[in-house]
Amino acid sequence: MSDFLDDQIEDAGVVAFDFDGTITVRDSFTTFLKWRAGPQRYAAGMMRLAPAGLAYLGHRNRGRIKAAATREFLAGVSREQLEDEAKTFAEHQAPRLLRGDALSTWKRWRTRRAKLVIVTASPDIIVAPFARGLGADALIATELQFDANDRATGGFATPNCRGQEKVRRLRAMFGDDLQLKAAYGDTSGDKDMLKIADHRGYRVFKARP
Predict the structure, then answer these.
(1) Is 158 exposed, middle or buried, given 0-12, 13-18 or 19+ CB atoms closer than 10 A?
(2) Who is most buried in 27, 136, 166, 167, counting CB within 10 A?
(3) Does 20 score more than 90 pLDDT?
(4) SS3 115
(5) Exposed, middle or buried, 51 (CB in 10 Å: 0-12/13-18/19+)?
(6) Is the pLDDT at 57 greater than 70, yes or no?
(7) Ramachandran quadrant class, 111 (left: phi over 0; alpha: psi -120 to 50; beta: rest)
(8) What residues have CB less than 8 Å from 51, skipping those under 6 apart?
C-alpha cells in the first residue's frame, strides 16, 4: 500500500472509502443510537428489537434490521434535531472512532488531488458531519426518509448502500465508465466497490484510537 501511494500522482481520480470499520473502529450508526438514547432507553429498545434480530438470522438482510432500529429509535424525530445531534456526536466521538492510519492514507490521497468519497451503508445525516470534518468531496450513504413535516418516518428514502448499490450510486454520481483509482473497505458489502478499483485495500487499516 505504501509503495502505491508513494508514486507521484496528480489529479489521481476518484478514491472511495467505506466508513464503518474502515475509517472508524466500529459501526457509527449503532454507536450514535446508543449515545443518543442513553443506556436505559437503548436497552429497552434493543429488547423490543429482539424479534427483528431473530428474523435477521433467517433473511440476513441488513437493510431490514437497520430499518427496524431506525423505526425504534428515530421515528418522529425532526430533521433539524437529528442534524444538530449528529454534529454534536461527531464532535464528541470522532477521537474515539477514527483510525489514525486510515486518516493518514486519506490525507496522502488528498495531497495527490484525488476526489475523496465516503461510501457507506450508514445514514447520510449521521455520517455527514464526519465527512465535512474530513473534507470529503462527496458522501454517498443510505438516506433517511422524512415526512411532510420533516420528521423521520423510520424508513429509508434509498436502498441500503452496500454491495452492488455502492457501485450503482458511485456510477450515478461519476458516470457509468467510472474506474476508481483506489477503494478501501472491510466487509463483504464493500467487495463490489473494490472490484472496480485499480488499488484494492481490504481490511488494511488496523489502528485504534
Answers:
(1) middle
(2) 166
(3) yes
(4) strand
(5) exposed
(6) no
(7) alpha
(8) none
